[in-house]
Amino acid sequence: MSTVTMQSARAHAALHEATPVTNPFVAFLHAVSAACKPAPRRTPTRCEEAEQVRRLAASVADTDPGFAADLYAAAARHDGYED
């Protein structure tokens, strides 16, 4: 381990031990990381999922009509299920 490694390890440890109150840079990093987090994704409803499958079926209907029919049937069954 060299002197550079030891110094950078100390700096890294010091940054992780710092709190937002004692170090403005750490406060800035916390604010940026909180702002960059993606919003939670909404779970689609059963009808929305079935509609997505129907759109997929329509997109492949010309090239693979049998698969499209299977997808339409799956969407119809999916619509019929109760939560």
Any overview of this molecule?
With 83 residues, the protein is mostly helical. It has helices at 3-17, 24-36, 46-60, 65-80. Helix 3 (46-60) packs antiparallel against helix 4. The longest helix has 16 residues, at 65-80. The mean pLDDT is 79.
Characteristics:
4 helices, 71% helix, mainly alpha, 83 residues
| Rg calc | 27 Å
Low-pLDDT residue spans? none
What is the percentage of strand-forming residues?
under 5%
How many beta-strand segments? 0
Question: Residue-averaged pLDDT, rounded?
Answer: 79
Question: Structural class given helices, strands, pairing?
Answer: mainly alpha
Shape: rod-shaped
In angstroms, what separates the terminal alpha carbons?
60 Å
What's the arrangement of secondary structure elements?
Elements: H1 3-17, H2 24-36, H3 46-60, H4 65-80
Summarize the structure.
This protein is mostly helical and 83 residues long. It has helices at 3-17, 24-36, 46-60, 65-80.
